[in-house]
Inverse folding.
């Protein structure tokens, strides 16, 4: 099901969002201590904010604002709060997010739209290979969205590969929700145990947390590594706790589709000015329909391209490309600007590298330094040189490399308080 607003013209979609703006601004001025102060402190007359372009008159909201003053963003009495979640804290102190009953319904509707966009149907059975606990919003969002879709749900959670395959055998799921790098481990397990992975019931996977496509929407190294051995359709998704919304691929795989009922999106440069379609910009979001903790012009820190031409699926909404990187994780290494995903992509194509950890730190001269800790089954003295040669070929620069065992890397990346493996550590001063 495609909502009517998503097949309307760009002008109609813009007009629709502009009709929602006055209600949001009035709600924030009455209920949000943070935004009421922002409006007064900047002499903003909210009645003059009538178009999406007028939003530029309002200063952006940063992650630091949210971290320092979380309570001042909350717009409802404690008695209306029924669910508590926490951001991952990848770029700083985690933030506790609260939701009302209506917010949970909005979350379910978002995921229903997103999973439907990614070829989800009531006849499907989804194996959830992500956590639904640990204060993780995505887990509850997927569960509620699948219920709204009418699909079957198997809550297996992350890891325990033997249990994942046992579930394949017992329940015959047709779809997975997973971190894509885990699919590589499943392929390796199948090969080691004589399982023909292409004879399982699984036909598609919604991939979270890691990119499987490049900026041209072709499968990246990780995506090719999976589909080279498993005849499975992969769908990208981009989301965050703060936006309470997701951008999923449709069957054409040309970027994550925007749901204009739920969120206004801007793409800004370093001076908070809009970027053209052919330039990457920071994703800045304004939530629509959120009761407990709505956000206005919130800077996500994610750098992406956006695309506005109509999609072959029939939707006319904006599409968002893969995350190039996070603004705070940008590296200047030997004169080259890098983001962690570019490093991951190179390591993913080296077959003898089973897992890895990237550590960045400040060198003696005050410059960024990169150490790649690579988990390899064999301790071949040539591996370090081969890894560096791959980097020089693709990026013209080579990081420091340390060869370790996969078990040693697992001990470093599987941190007790984290919901997902930690593959990037920023120790820069």
């Amino acid at each position: 099901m495609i909502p009517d607003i998503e097949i309307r013209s760009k002008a109609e979609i813009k007009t629709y969002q502009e009709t929602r703006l006055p209600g949001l601004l009035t709600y924030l001025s009455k209920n949000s201590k943070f935004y009421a102060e922002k409006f007064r402190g900047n002499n903003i007359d909210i009645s003059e904010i009538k178009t999406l372009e007028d939003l530029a008159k309002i200063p952006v909201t940063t992650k630091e604002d949210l971290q320092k003053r979380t309570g001042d963003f909350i717009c409802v009495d404690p008695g209306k709060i029924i669910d508590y979640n926490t951001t991952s804290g990848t770029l700083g102190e985690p933030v506790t997010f609260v939701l009302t009953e209506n917010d949970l319904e909005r979350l379910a509707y978002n995921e229903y739209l997103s999973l439907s966009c990614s070829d989800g149907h009531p006849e499907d059975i989804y194996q959830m290979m992500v956590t639904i606990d640990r204060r993780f919003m995505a887990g509850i969002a997927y569960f509620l969205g699948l219920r709204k879709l009418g699909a079957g749900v198997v809550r297996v959670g992350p890891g325990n590969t033997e249990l994942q395959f046992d579930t394949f055998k017992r329940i015959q799921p047709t779809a997975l929700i997973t971190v894509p790098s885990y699919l590589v481990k499943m392929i390796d397990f199948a090969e080691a145990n004589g399982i023909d992975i292409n004879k399982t019931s699984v036909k598609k996977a919604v991939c979270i947390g890691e990119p499987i496509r490049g900026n041209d929407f072709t499968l990246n190294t990780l995506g090719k590594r999976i589909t080279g051995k498993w005849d499975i359709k992969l769908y990208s998704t981009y989301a965050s706790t703060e936006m309470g919304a997701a951008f999923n691929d449709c069957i054409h795989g040309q970027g994550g589709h925007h749901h204009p009922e739920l969120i206004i999106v801007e793409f800004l440069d370093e001076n908070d000015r809009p970027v053209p379609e052919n330039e990457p910009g920071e994703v800045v979001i304004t939530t629509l329909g959120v009761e407990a903790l709505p956000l206005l012009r919130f800077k996500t820190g994610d750098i992406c391209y956006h695309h506005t031409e109509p999609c072959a699926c029939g939707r006319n909404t904006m599409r968002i490309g893969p995350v190039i990187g996070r603004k705070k994780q940008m590296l200047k290494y030997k004169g080259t600007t890098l983001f962690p995903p570019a490093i991951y992509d190179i390591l993913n194509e080296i077959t003898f590298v089973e897992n890895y950890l990237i550590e960045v730190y400040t060198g003696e001269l005050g410059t960024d330094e990169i150490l790649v800790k690579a988990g390899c089954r064999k301790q071949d003295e040539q591996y370090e040189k081969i890894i560096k040669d791959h980097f020089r070929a693709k990026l013209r620069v080579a990081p420091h490399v340390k060869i370790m065992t996969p078990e040693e890397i697992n001990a470093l990346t599987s941190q007790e308080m984290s919901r997902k493996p930690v593959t990037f550590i920023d120790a820069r001063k």
